[in-house]
Amino acid sequence: MLPVLEGSVLDAARVLNYALENGLIDRYFEFVDGTAGSDSTLTLLPGMGVNNDQEFEVPAYADLRLLSDLGLIELEETLTGRGNRKWQVLIRPNLQTALSESRDDEAQVRGKVFLSHSHQDRRFVNQIVSGLNSEYEIWYDKNIPGGADWWEDILEHIASCDVFFYLLSNDSIDSIYCRAEFAEALRLGKSIATIACRPIRNTPRTIAGRRQVTNIPDDWEIERMEQEILLILDAAQQRGSGDFEQALWPQKALEPDSNAYVLTFQVAANTDPVQSAAELNTGVLIIPGDKISISVTGRIVYDEIGTWADASGRIQGAGEWEHPEAYKTHEGDGLIGALFGWIGDYQPRSAFRVGANFEWKVPEHSLDGFLFLAVNDAKGSYGDNSGSFTVELKVFRNS
């Protein structure tokens, strides 16, 4: 009969099994003592058989010793050519079986978690996944099968998750991919948990919302970190999934392109930004420091007699006339018929004219929010408009 694992020994077994399944280590690997100290103060350095020393961290020696005593690994101590202590580890097949028997029944798993993260935080992710997999079914982009439509796969798992877990760092906030995933979770009304694994210069208000962002100090032991994360995930799930019968806005998150968000979509001329703002949400979260590039083509028909305007608001058609500018939705310098935009909550003074071409770096002191685009028209006069502008939007960071 295999032993039932618990505590730090269970955590060590999970770390080894996860690393083996994901190719971070071979079934046989070595590590050495980097300090030549006592067993209680060992600094363990990965050696042969460790394929990724950036993501794999050798478990505590005491836990490895116990796994060896339980017959789940073979652990043999030797010396290096320089006289340092070295250990050879062979992971036995029954380690995975023991893990399965120590895990709660699948019916007792608390729920499904979608983990959004930067690849720069992979080591932290490995600790979370290996430590919490018995409590929650955790999904992240490592699980995408080869040949899959990876972005559709991501959207499907966001749609089916109980909790969206945003692992925050400056890298994940800057990441176009992570922001797109977060936007989709927010669009669908998912319960969202936010945890900072590294110090953050500034958490965007759209991400923080009314949620408290929990910081995980560097000096926390793995067991305490896992307990804190479990409390946060449980609290998020107890708030309820909050899935909406109808999404907050219709445009689902589109697939980012490399380090930029490049989208092409239509902005309908008859959508009133006062009455139907949600329909004008691009679904792209903008934060200070972003660079925005917009190109617009096409024209819209302004009235029942076929007067048309391009994105700059140049109105032509019957009589080649220019419409008066009084009492527009956007009270700035944009002509009626022009394309304009705003970030976050709509306020006429904060809106800006986009026109046919627009380039802008969002100032560092600006507020973050979703980007909205609309056609400029007299208030309450959108009903006789028709057609749409074709918009190519590109959002990218300096990095």
Condensed summary:
The chain is of the alpha+beta class and 399 residues long.
What features would you describe in this structure?
The protein contains nine helices and 20 strands. It is an alpha+beta fold. It folds into three domains: 7-100, no CATH class; 105-238, Toll/interleukin-1 receptor homology (TIR) domain (Rossmann fold, 3-Layer(aba) Sandwich); 260-396, Jelly Rolls (Sandwich). Helix 1 (7-21) crosses helix 2, helix 1 crosses helix 3 and helix 1 crosses helix 4 (122-132). 36% of the residues are buried. Mean pLDDT is 79; it is low at 318-327.
Low-confidence blocks of residues: 318-327
Query: What percent of residues adopt helix (DSSP H or I)?
Result: 10-25%
What is the CATH class name of the largest domain?
Mainly Beta
CA-to-CA gap between the ends? Answer: 54 Å
Mean pLDDT: 79
Helix/strand-derived category reads alpha+beta
Count of individual domains: 3
The CATH architecture of the largest domain is: Sandwich
CATH names the topology of the largest domain as: Jelly Rolls
- What is the tally of helical segments? 9
Portion in strands: 25-35%
Please name the fourth-level CATH homologous superfamily of the largest domain.
Galactose-binding lectin
Say how many strands there are. Answer: 20
Order of helices and strands: HEEHEEHEHEHEHHEHEHEEEEEEEEEEE
